[in-house]
Structure formats: structure tokens, C-alpha cells
Design goal:
48% of the residues lie in helices and 12% in strands. By secondary structure, it is of the alpha/beta class. The protein is globular.
Amino acid sequence: MTTDEETLALQSQLIAQRSGLKEKYVRQVVDLLQDGATVPFISRYRKEATGGMTDVEVARVASELEDVTELMHRKEFILSAIEGQDKLTPELRTRIGDCWDKTTLEDIYLPYKQKRRTRAQVAREAGLEPLADAIMRQTNTPLKALIAKLSPLKDDAEGSLQGAKDIIAERVSEDERARQTLRTTFSIHATIRSKVIRGKDAEGQNYRDYFEWEEPLKRCSSHRLLAMRRGEAEGILRVAICVEDEPALERIARQFVRGGSESSQAVREAVEDGYKRLLEPSISSEFATASKQKADEEAIRIFVRNLEQLLMASPLGQKRVMAIDPGFRTGCKVVCLDAEGNLLHHDVIFPHPPRAERIRAMQTLQNLVEKYGVQAISIGNGTAGRETEDFVRHLDLPQGVEIYSVSEDGASIYSASDIGRQEFPDEDVTVRGAVSIGRRLMDPLAELVKIDPSSIGVGQYQKDVNQTALRKSLEETVVSCVNRVGVNLNTASQWLLTYVSGLGPSLAQNIVRYRRENGPFRSRRELMKVPRLGAKAFEQSAGFLRIKGGDEPLDNSAVHPERYELVEQMARDQKCTVEQLMADKSLRDKIDIERYVSKDVGLPTLQDIMTELDKPGLDPRQPLKAFAFDETVHDIADLREGQLLPGIVTNITNFGAFVDIGVHTKGLVHVSQMADRFVKDPTTILSIGQQVMVRVVGIDLQRQRISLSMKKNG
């Protein structure tokens, strides 16, 4: 077995242990990833190789592979660094080689790590290490005698003793057992404390809940920890993670102090100094980093879940849409879009004060609806959104024209972005924003991929978490959603195509350019004519791209081109064409798929093929449902405790969910008010865009806060 083979085998074994997945399938996923396959492709088209892993499990393998590879590189660096100091013994090499825990590995390396010039280092340079060794043995020899015999600083007994204790203190702080003992103490007993910095009370009112706060670290929720850390970053709070020093110090001292000699007392003093000056701050900092990372992971998990729900929101589909970006003083920007989302017309109306040209606005909208055959109206939910929706609902519109309120979050970001300027170079930001509101109704996924996910307005503390980890998770989520739904090759924008498995920005741009120069694609195979799109990119992307009305009926399904021949064989066996097989269920019912199992194709793939033949290109998103707010409430002042109102979930956090009830201020359903039973994770019972009934349980007019409940009892 080659070195590379050994490495892959070891990586697969470690990933299997960490993930609980079968090593055989982990190894095959690792091989596919190393060969350039994407997570969506592997989970969808290589089920036999993965043992039917979900896309989440394949993504877990990919993530663990990165971590294990990074750990291997770190071990190589550490071995090289210690070898460069001529301190790498065979035992130490073996120990590092066998270590697969990051924390333990860094503990092993700590005594050899290059540091700034410490007090202990100064003492070593002064030749005091033999004295420190003698004191550590804790014999009954008086310290004075040890110093006289072993210290080069004959005339400075006090300095000699202090230098020796500095060396011992550093050894204590770097001792693996001592560090692990204190870690255990922190993991059980650590407390997080927050206090307001003197003089910052007035400035930091947003953080007043944390002016005098203390709780066990292990019970501190993600949102509270991130709130405290934000207050600390803004210079409002002082945050500390600590344990009771005396019992923790005693546990450490027992590991080093023996007997009651003068040397033992010196060791105890050195242990105390090492604990307070070096060890405790190091472990406290370690737990601060680890707790922040854990809070980040929880916040990112919620953000990812919210984003996924937002991207997978129900689409209206290809219908002619009028979109309105509401406003009071500047008026309401109106655009009309065709069924493909192309801009046909734009206008401005002023139905609200200060101009209040209601009759003219009414005539304009009714004329535009008739002229462009509008089938649905999309209204932004921002400023003047509710008033505009009420105005439109009272128009004399043709039967069947549905009216929808659509989230504006991120529309202004899109309208001022490079993408917005590229799409509409001759229009101003108000027109672009209105177009985005209309397209979001038609296909939320296709439009939202153009906006930085962190600007969409879901999640919690997204600016405070690790931005690299956040971007990576959000990117993976967008990729997953785009490939789950599939993409129309002949209508998809460059930005949507970018997220298709195996493509990316460059190939997406080449596809759009080819389409513009040569007309619509007639088959998936024609993709091979796109510049720089080779066999690998075709293999990875083709199954996720759809062509409606093309030369090959299977091109409008999720059946991969590599399996077309198999489907054609099924059709020949039924003495019909592929098109007839897709159209006639009775023909499909006659197929015994086990006859088509081979060494390359197993039952999972065959079952997927049959599902696609039943409903080719089926959109997994739910149908869109119309929604209307309660007509009796328009402002927070209209609310009364006990009112039961319809609402739409707009954001979910780990402490509750925000619900739009049509009064300009989102209400909060605290996690304790979500159900009559205990709810640990709000994302398990609610989703973004879900229509819910809520009861008003609290109104704070001064702070513009609304408390809501979804409980049936009480």
C-alpha cells in the first residue's frame, strides 16, 4: 500500500470514528471527494458508493476530512519544529504520531513551542535550571545549601530562588496533567461573569441585562454569550470566565507538592504563582475561545436552518407579476414583469400622504394590470407596506389576481450591488428594488442567491460570529438548496448557475454567454460545447440542470445522462419510446427494476430513476398559499392583549421566533410561549414564512415591543 493509500485509509478510519458512519462508505466518499466530486453529486448520484448517505452526512465527511487533513499538517509542523531543536526522541515521535486530539497535541507541543522571552527563560539563561530540578525533588536539604551549591548567582540567594521558582511555575503551567485537571474543573464549575464598565451605564443601555450577570458557563445560551461578547467588544461590559481559585489550586498543588520541607514550600509557592500568572489565564482563555466557538456554531446552525427555509420558500412560478416597492413621501415604485421575470414597465404612484393621489394611483394600477395581463401582485412589507396592501386590496381587479406581501430584506442591498447594476444598468436603485420584490414572489431561490445571505435578515448575531465559518456554512446551504430544486438551463441567471454542482462563476458566465450567442440549449449534451466546460464539470452538473421542450425528454428530469441508456433499455423492453414510458404509468408499473441491477447500478439509483419517470423535474418546494393580515389592526396602538391574529414567521432564534402581524413591528413568540409542551429547539416546530395564529400577551408602546403566544391553553 502506497503512502497516499495509507494516508487515505487512516483519514477514513478517523472520520468513521468521529462521525459514526461506516468506514467502508466513508472511504468511498473520501475517494470521490479527492477525485473532485461535489457533495450534491455524491449524495444524489453515487448512493451505492455512499450506502445511501444523506447530503448532510456527505457534507459531514467532507468537513471532517478538512479537519483531519489540517491536523495531519499540524503534526508534521510540530514534529519538524521539535526535531529542529534536537529534542525529538523516538517516544515523543510515537506519541505525537498516535495523537488525534487537537488539545492534547498542543499540550504535548507546549514545552517546545517558541515563546517570547519569559521569566523562566531568563532564569534558564542564568543557569538556574539545575537549582530548579533540585528544589523539585523536595529533599530535606536546606534551600540555602542548594543555592550555594547549584546557583551561579552566588551573591544573590533571593534572586536565585526566585529564578528557580519561575522555572518551576512555567513547568507547572505547561504540565499536561495539570492542564487537564484544570480543564476538568472549568468544564464542571466554570462561571461566566459580566459587569458594566464604570461610566458606561448610560451608553450601554442595550446591555443593561448584563450589567451584573453571573451564571454557570455550561448553562449559558448561545444568544446570551454572544450578547455579552458584543458588549465587551463595544467597550460596555467586562466579561470573565473563572472558577473558585482555592479548590482548583489545591488540586494542582497535590500533583507537585510532597512533604513539608523548605523545598516543598518553595514548590507550593511556585505552583501558586504558575497557576495565577500562567495556567489559570491560559485555561480561562481556552474556555473563552471554546465557548465562543460553541455559541458561534449554534448561531450559525440556526442561521443556516433559517436560510434554508427561506431559499426553499414556496414559489409562485412563471406568472406575470406586478411588484410594488411601497413608500410614503417618495411614492410607491411599480414594475410589471413578464412570466420570465423580465422588466416590461415601471412607474410611480402616490396613494398615501403627503401627496395622496389615490384616484390617479388607482387608475394607474388598474390600467397596468389590464395592459400587461398581470396575474399576481407582490408588495414589499417595509415602510408603507401594510397601507399599500390595503389600498391594492380595495381596487377593482380582475378575478383571480392574487395579492402577496413579500419580505424586502436585502432588496436595497441587491439594488445597489454590482449584480443589480449588471442586470439593469439603465435603471435606478428604486426600479431594481421593485424588480427584486416581484421576482422573489415568482422564485425566491433564484432571486435570493444574488444577495449576501447575511443581509437577508434571518438568524441572530450574525455579525458577531466567526465570519469565515458563517460564509462557508451559508455557501454550502445555498449550494444544497439550488441543487435540490434543480435549475432551468435556458432561463437561469448567471448567479443561480454559479451554485450548480461542478460549475462556479466562470463556467456560469460562459454558459450564459453561449446561450446568448447560440440560442436556447436543445440538450444537456450541448453543454459540452460551452468553452472550458469539460467532461468532469459536465458529469457533476448535468443532472441538476433542466431543459424543457428540448430534444431529449429525460433532460427535463433529474435522471443523469450517464443513465439514459439504462432508461432507453427499459423502454425497449416495454416496446415503447422513452417519451411513452414517461407518460404512461401502466408501462412503468410493468418494470421489474431488480432486472436492471448491475455492478455499477444498484436499487437506490434505480428507485430514484423510477421516481423521476413518475414526476420528472418535480419541484420539491411546497405550493404557495395566499395570506392576509387582520384588517382591524394596522399599528401597534391597535393591539389589545388577548387578541388572536394571523401572522407570518419572519425569523427564528434559539430564544424564540419573530412574527409579522401587520403592524410594522415584529412580535416575539418566546420559546416558552410556542407550545403547551417544552420546546428546546424552535426550528423543529417552526419555519420561516410559516403562517401561524398568535395571541397578543404583552404590548410595550414605549419600547415598541410586542409579546405573542402560540399556546392553545392560557
